């Protein structure tokens, strides 16, 4: 299992956006420069974040992006789902129905009476991961990191965010 690098870019970008003063916004160019990543790729990520209701965009001279919800309301899972999509990672193709040893047990027109145990385990595991990530918010991230960040480091982040439009 592997999430795309877009999830990492999104989470790091959103972390810094939390410090933007009210009424101000950040452009993708500023965030891309901060992280040393491609502006084009980051713009695609922000399009997905906007579609997922995590950020909103404002056009014009003072335009850019801002969080669409409070940091407490944005979970890691919200970000993963916005970037990767809502589908489950494990896709059961019911190959057991094609097994030549038991071909006489399955009618392809009738669904099996019991679910595939492999699918059950995989979906259960993914649900546990989803629930864990739903319990971790952007606010939790900031609280955890700021416990270890020096006042100087916190100040650098706030100063950078304070330069927003």
TrEMBL record:
Pfam short name (any one): Rrf2
Coiled coil, from the record: none
One annotated Gene Ontology cellular component of this protein: cytosol
Annotated GO MF terms: DNA-binding transcription factor activity
UniProt cross-references to Gene3D superfamilies, sorted A to Z: Winged helix-like DNA-binding domain superfamily/Winged helix DNA-binding domain
Annotated signal peptide: none
Protein name: Rrf2 family transcriptional regulator
Domain of life: Bacteria
């Amino acid at each position: 299992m592997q999430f795309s690098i877009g999830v990492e870019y999104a989470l790091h970008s959103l972390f810094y956006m939390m410090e933007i003063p009210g009424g101000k916004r950040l452009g993708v160019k500023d965030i891309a420069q901060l992280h040393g990543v491609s502006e084009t790729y980051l713009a695609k990520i922000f399009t997905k974040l906007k579609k997922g209701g995590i950020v909103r965009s404002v056009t014009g001279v003072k335009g850019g992006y801002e969080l669409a919800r409070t940091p407490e309301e944005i979970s890691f899972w919200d970000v993963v789902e916005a970037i990767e999509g809502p589908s489950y990672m494990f896709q059961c193709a019911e190959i057991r129905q094609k097994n030549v040893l038991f071909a006489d047990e399955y009618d392809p027109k009738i669904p099996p009476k019991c679910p595939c145990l492999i699918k059950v385990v995989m979906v259960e595991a993914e649900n546990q991961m989803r629930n864990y990530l739903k319990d971790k918010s952007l606010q939790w991230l900031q609280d955890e990191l700021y416990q270890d960040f020096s006042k100087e480091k916190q100040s650098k982040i706030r100063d950078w965010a304070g330069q927003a439009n």
